[in-house]
Amino acid sequence: MRGFLLITGLLLLFAVEILRVYFIMPFPGSQQSNTIDVAYWLGKNITWLRILGLSLVLWPSLQIFLTKGKWKKIFLAAALLLYVVIFFFINFRFEADKMFYQPQSKIFASGATNKIADNKLVIGVAINGEAKAYPIQLIGYHHQVRDTIGNTPVMITYCTVCRTGRAFSPFVNGKPEDFRLVGMDHFNAMFEDATTKSWWQQATGVAVAGPLKGKALQELPSQQLTLAAWLSLHPNSTVMQPDTLYQKDYDDLADYDKGTIKSSLEKRDSSSWKFKSWVIGVAYNNNAKAYDWNKLVETSMIQDSMPGLPIIITLEKDTASFHVFSRSINGTVLQFEKNNDGISLRDINTQSIWNMQGACIDGMLKGQALQPVQSSQEFWHSWSTFHPATEKYEK
Question: What would be one Pfam family of this protein (predicted)?
Answer without folding.
Answer: DUF3179
